[in-house]
C-alpha cells in the first residue's frame, strides 16, 4: 500500500512523546492510532486525514487546504478532515492539525 513516507515520518515524529501509538495500513495509506483510536492518516497523495471533534468540523474546514474527505466517492462521516500540503506546509499548521487529532483521540 503506497503512502507518502515523508508525511508518515512527520506524523511519527509528532506523536513520538505519546503513549500507546500504533500504525495500521488502512484508508489507502497508513493510519496512526493513539490508545487504539485513529488520530491521523497519511495517504498516497501527500494529504493527512485527521479524526477531529465532529462539533468542530465546520470551523476546521475553513482552514487552508482542509476539505471533507471521501471514501470510494462518498463523503466520510462527520469528524474527519483531509488536509492537503497547502494546509500543512508550516510546522505551526501541521502541529495544529496533530493537536486537533490528539485532543479528540484523548
Distance between the termini: 28 Å
The level of helicity is 25-40%
Number of domains: 1
What is the CATH class name? Alpha Beta
CATH fold-level name: Aspartate Aminotransferase, domain 1
Strand content: 25-35%
- Give a count of the beta strands, DSSP E runs of length 2 or more: 8
> Looking at the structure, what is the overall shape?
globular
| Average pLDDT number | 94
Radius of gyration: 12 Å
Short description:
The protein has 106 residues and is of the alpha+beta class. 27% of the residues lie in helices and 31% in strands.
Topology at a glance:
Elements: H1 5-14, E1 21-26, E2 29-34, E3 37-43, E4 48-51, H2 57-60, E5 66-67, E6 70-71, E7 74-75, E8 80-83, H3 91-105
Antiparallel strand pairs: 1-2, 2-3, 3-4, 4-8, 5-8, 6-7
Task: Please explain how this structure is put together.
The protein has 106 residues and is an alpha+beta fold. The protein has a single domain (5-85), classed as Aspartate Aminotransferase, domain 1 (Alpha-Beta Complex), CATH 3.90.1150.30. The chain is built from three helices and eight strands, in the order αββββαββββα. It has helices spanning 5-14, 57-60, 91-105; strands spanning 21-26, 29-34, 37-43, 48-51, 66-67, 70-71, 74-75, 80-83. The strands form two sheets. A six-stranded antiparallel sheet has the order 1-2-3-4-8-5. A hairpin with a 4-residue loop joins β3 and β4 (48-51). The protein is globular. The mean pLDDT is 94.
Amino acid at each position: 500500500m503506497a503512502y507518502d513516507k515523508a508525511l508518515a515520518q512527520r506524523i511519527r515524529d509528532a506523536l513520538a512523546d505519546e503513549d500507546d501509538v500504533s500504525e495500521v495500513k488502512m484508508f489507502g495509506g497508513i493510519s496512526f492510532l493513539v490508545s487504539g483510536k485513529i488520530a491521523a492518516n497519511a495517504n498516497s497523495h501527500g494529504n493527512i486525514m485527521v479524526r477531529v471533534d465532529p462539533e468542530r468540523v465546520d470551523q476546521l474546514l475553513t482552514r487552508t487546504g482542509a476539505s471533507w474527505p471521501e471514501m470510494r466517492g462518498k463523503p466520510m462521516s462527520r469528524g474527519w478532515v483531509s488536509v492537503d500540503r497547502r494546509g500543512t506546509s508550516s510546522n505551526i499548521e501541521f502541529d495544529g492539525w496533530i493537536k486537533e487529532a490528539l485532543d479528540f483521540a484523548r
